[in-house]
Amino acid sequence: MATQQSQSIQTLLEAEKEAAKVVQQARQYRVQRLKEARTQASKEINEYRQSKEQEFKAFEASHAGSIQTVQAAIDKETEVKRAEITKQYQQNKDKVVKKLLDRVVLVEPELHRNLKKVGA
């Protein structure tokens, strides 16, 4: 009976060792799959980033000409407005100076309307 118990114990120990090996292999497999998943995700992210960068560069290249034409149109419009303002300044500067001088130099002395005459 002792040999039978010894064999049973030995069988249990071997089964436990086998179970530990299976668990260890499962852990290693899981770690390996996680690493593979991370590298695959990293690769997919890089591919997606590159495709989006290419799309952006294509968009930028297709719209670069329109940006330059819009900028040229804005510059032209600004120059026209600037020339118009300068022209109006040249036309009206003498009138403005004359009005200012008339207000400052030509003073008509008179009593203030709130001043009351004394004795009246």
Automatic annotation (TrEMBL):
Coiled coil start-end: 12-54
Superkingdom per UniProt: Eukaryota
InterPro entries: V-ATPase_G
Keyword vocabulary terms for this entry: Coiled coil, Hydrogen ion transport, Ion transport, Transport
Transmembrane segments: none
Family designation: Belongs to the V-ATPase G subunit family.
Job description of the protein: Subunit of the V1 complex of vacuolar(H+)-ATPase (V-ATPase), a multisubunit enzyme composed of a peripheral complex (V1) that hydrolyzes ATP and a membrane integral complex (V0) that translocates protons. V-ATPase is responsible for acidifying and maintaining the pH of intracellular compartments and in some cell types, is targeted to the plasma membrane, where it is responsible for acidifying the extracellular environment.
NCBIfam families the record matches: V_ATP_synt_G
Self-association and partners: V-ATPase is a heteromultimeric enzyme made up of two complexes: the ATP-hydrolytic V1 complex and the proton translocation V0 complex.
Protein name (Swiss-Prot/TrEMBL): V-type proton ATPase subunit G
Organism per entry: Somion occarium
Organism placement in taxonomy: Eukaryota, Fungi, Dikarya, Basidiomycota, Agaricomycotina
